[in-house]
Amino acid sequence: MNVALDIVVAAGSKPKVILLEDEELLSGFFADWIHECLTDADLAVFENGDEAWRELCRTRADLFITDELHPGMLGTKIISRLAKAGVKCSILLISGGANYQIPPLDDRPGLKVEVLPKPFSREQFQHKLNLLAGEE
Q1: What is the residue-level pLDDT of the chain in tens, covering all 136 positions?
Q2: Of the candidates 79, 71, 87, the residue with the CA atom closest to the CA atom of residue 114
Q3: Each residue of 64-77: pLDDT tens digit?
Q4: Are 65 and 29 spatial neighbours (Cβ–Cβ below 8 Å)?
C-alpha cells in the first residue's frame, strides 16, 4: 500500500518524513510501517522533541509523525509552533495512552492533523496515513 501525500513533492524527490518517538521498539515498528506505506520516503527518526523541532526548522517535512509524550518538547507544543510559523505539513499525533487527554490544539491553518490514540494496530496507523493523504 503506497500512500500519496496531498503535499506536492517536486518531481524526482522523495517525500520527507520526520518521526518523533522516544521508545526504540515503537520507533522501529513505525519506521517499518511508514516504509510499507511510503516506499520511497526519506525518513528521519528522533527521540527528543527539541531535536525534532530543530530538524523541522531546518528542512521542509511532508509528514511529521509524533508521539505526544517524550523528552524535550511535547508533540502538541511542536504542532502549535509549526502553526505559528506558517508551516504546511501533514501530521499524525500519537496520544500518550488511553487515559491521556490531548490538550486542545491552537488554530492550525496549513496543517492537516490526525490523532491516533494508543494502543493501536498497524492497520489503524495506515488508515490514519490514508486519511492524511485524502484517500479515505
Answers
A1: 444 444 445 555 788 999 999 999 999 999 999 998 888 889 999 999 999 999 999 998 999 999 888 888 888 889 888 888 888 889 999 986 666 666 666 567 778 888 898 889 999 999 999 888 776 6
A2: 79
A3: 999 888 888 888 88
A4: no
How far from chain centre, in Å, is Cα 127?
13
Cell of 45: 527518526
CA atoms within 13 A of residue 109's CA, in its CB half-sphere: 3
Strand order in the sheet with 111-116: 42-46, 16-20, 63-67, 89-94, 111-116
What digits encode the pLDDT tens for the residues 12-37? 578 899 999 999 999 999 999 999 88
Q: Between the CA of residue 125 and those of 94, 115, 132, what are the distances in Å?
A: 9, 10, 11
Instruction: Determine contact, residues 92/120, Cβ cutoff 8 Å.
Output: no
Q: For the chain, state the CA radius of gyration.
A: 14
